[in-house]
Design a protein that fits this description.
- The chain is an all-alpha fold.
- The chain has 2 domains: about 30 residues; about 35 residues.
- About 80% of the residues lie in helices and about 0% in strands.
- The radius of gyration is 18 Å and the shape is flat.
Length: about 70
């Protein structure tokens, strides 16, 4: 049977891990830049909660948690 559930899950896991590696590499790249690291260290206590809350709200809205 083409496209069985186990093979699709395997593809999802592989794609997830590849994209996770891209996110980690991107974060490392930006965090090691002097100018960006200084800006993040000054504003991280405000920036990170806002960004994480925004991502959470986007997931809830796009996922239909509040109805159609």
């Amino acid at each position: 049977m083409p496209g069985s559930i186990s093979s699709r899950w395997g593809i999802y896991v592989i794609v997830f891990r590849i994209l996770l590696a891209v996110w980690i590499a991107t974060g490392h790249f930006f965090a090691t830049r002097q100018v960006i690291a200084k800006a993040l260290s000054r504003r991280a206590h405000i920036l990170f909660p806002v960004v994480l809350s925004g991502i959470g709200q986007l997931i809830l809205i796009e996922g239909g948690a509040f109805g159609p």
